[in-house]
Amino acid sequence: MYRRRRPIVTAVLRVVALTLTTASLAHAQQRPLVTEDPEVIGQGRILLEGGVTYGRDIFFPASGLRGNLLTVPEIGLSFGLGSIVELQFDGAVANRLAITDRELAPLSPLLSVVGDRVSSVGDVTLATKIRLLGETAGRPAIGFRIATKLPNAPNEKGLGLDTIDFYSSLLVGKTVQSIRIVGNIGVGILSDPTNATRQNDVLTLGASVARAVTDAFEVVGEVNSRIDTRAGEPPPGTESRGWLRFGARFTRATTRIDIALITGMTVRDPSWGFTAGATYVFDAFRIP
After folding, report:
1. pLDDT digit string, tens, across residues 186-212
2. 8: β partners
3. For residue 111, is it within any domain?
4. Residue 14 pLDDT greater than 80, yes or no
5. How many domains, in total, are found in the chain?
6. Could you tell me the CATH number of the domain that includes residue 39?
């Protein structure tokens, strides 16, 4: 069930309208956006990003926990293995949930949670991104990304599923004057945490807009979601999810600072939240 707030289409149009109000050079997508740009960071470069994310009123259907989640720090590390290939590692050092409610759920008997707070390491995602076609005046850049989510977060803490998931996405990006528009579409194969022989296939979608106000300052917005395609009730933890983000980025030399507001589109997502962080890119090695 999606939240009964503003209609999704109206919300997306408002985000886009807010981002299309000033001018200059658009940059490739990084934090606070999660929609993947088809462009890679460049051969021999390393991108290091870190941040903090807070979400209020998040529900975990598999464990039955509900509360306010603080993720700190979030870490991302990307390596430019070639002019068209990028290797990515993303994860969270710690997830901390202030519990506001508990419900009976499929994995709740496994919980070892005492009191109204619980902490856990986050899952790590390993991914490879390949730029298939570069951008030209008449054609967008096109890329492909394949990712695996590892089961680092234990289900005994209620914040993880202890499952391995696989994702693949087609990436498209185009710059029009000072506006960078990026779209993702793909599929996810999500394991059932209650039955190792079952899975749920989901459709993944993302669209973002970045508008440069000056050479150093951008406003950004996006909608990102996954849609359950299973007939009947999906396995717990694999349900449809969706997020809207609107924020800003400030770049100086090789460092970028970001901040964004977040609102969820389903009853499992945060009613509201925010994220803030920084990104640093540097030349690190040579490839023969």
Report:
1. 999 999 999 988 999 999 999 999 999
2. none
3. yes
4. no
5. 1
6. 2.40.230.20
Report which residue type is found at 246: F
Which positions ≥6 away from 124 have C-beta within 8 Å?
A: 89, 90, 91, 149, 150, 152
Residue 33 to residue 11: CA distance in whole angstroms: 17
For the chain, the distance separating the N- and C-terminal CA atoms, rounded to the nearest angstrom, is: 52
Task: Give the mean model confidence (pLDDT) for residues 114-139.
Answer: 96
Structural element, H or E, at residue 206: strand 199-212
Distance CA 264, CA 1 (A): 12
- Whose tokens are 């991302």? That residue is 76
Kindly state the tokens that stand for 181: 């528009």
CA nearest to 205, candidates 232, 243, 236, 175: 243
pLDDT of residue 288: 74
Give me the residue label for tokens 């694999």: 238
288, part of any domain: no
Distance CA(50)–CA(31), nearest Å, equals 9
- Cα 50 to Cα 35, 46, 83, 185: the distances in Å are 17, 13, 24, 25
Please check whether residue 59 lies inside any domain of the structure: yes
pLDDT, tens digit, 9 for 90 and up, residues 66-113: 999 999 999 999 999 999 999 999 999 999 999 999 999 999 999 999
Domain residues for 199? 8-282
**CA 37/CA 209 separation, integer angstroms:** 11
Nearest in space to 154 (alpha carbons), one of 60, 272, 24: 60
Give 266's DSSP letter: B
b/e map 114-129, b = 16+ CB within 10 Å: eeeebebbbbbbebeb
**Lookup result for tokens 């993947």:** 36
Number of H helices, E strands in the chain: 1, 14
Q: Residue 2: inside a domain, yes or no?
A: no
